[in-house]
Amino acid sequence: MKPFSVLFVCARNAGLSIMAEAYLNHLALPGVMAFSAGLDPAERVDPRALTALSAAGIETDRLEPKPVELFTFEHAPRPDVVVELGSGPLGTAPLWHHPARRLSWRMGDPLTISARASFAEAYDSLCQRIDRAMARVPAGRALLVPRRGLPLARRRFGPLLPALAG
């Protein structure tokens, strides 16, 4: 089975895309790898995003903002799907070495709001969106998927690509 990769992109790669990357990787789906990047990456991940992830039991040690251009290099991971996150269009996207499916998930950016709760709400919204996408994937193989705060639950998933479009 060919590995499948998802690249989450937002403006600064300090909140939304970092949380989406961390959550999808936390699910530990065999053959699926998530990455994140920003058009103008911040120097560090917003501490409020790290707090939201830590509260959900997700490891944060290796998370760092990265420029989207990193994924255009010849030997970089090649995303099968690029998901743009934010309240509006992100602007000019880089040219990929192979055609990636591009999606836009519109949602408020917690970096523009000062409340800590906004990061927890954004994290929950991302998790719900990813969970809905995964639940709509046609049954293909049974996987054990760790769920936030719940014991491992048996769920059936097939290829991720068709479901992310919703």
What report would you give on this structure?
The protein has 166 residues and is α/β, with parallel strands linked by helices. The protein has a single domain (4-163), classed as Rossmann fold (3-Layer(aba) Sandwich), CATH 3.40.50.2300. The protein contains three helices and six strands. It has helices at residues 16-26, 47-55, 116-135; strands at 4-10, 32-38, 81-86, 101-106, 141-147, 150-157. The strands form two sheets. Strands 2-1-3-4 form a four-stranded parallel beta sheet, with helices on one face. α1 links the parallel β1 (4-10) and β2. α2 crosses α3 (116-135). The longest helix is centred in the C-terminal third of the chain and has 20 residues, at 116-135. It is globular and about 40 Å long. It starts with a strand and ends in a 9-residue tail after the last strand. 34% of the residues are buried. Residues 138-166 have low confidence and may be disordered.
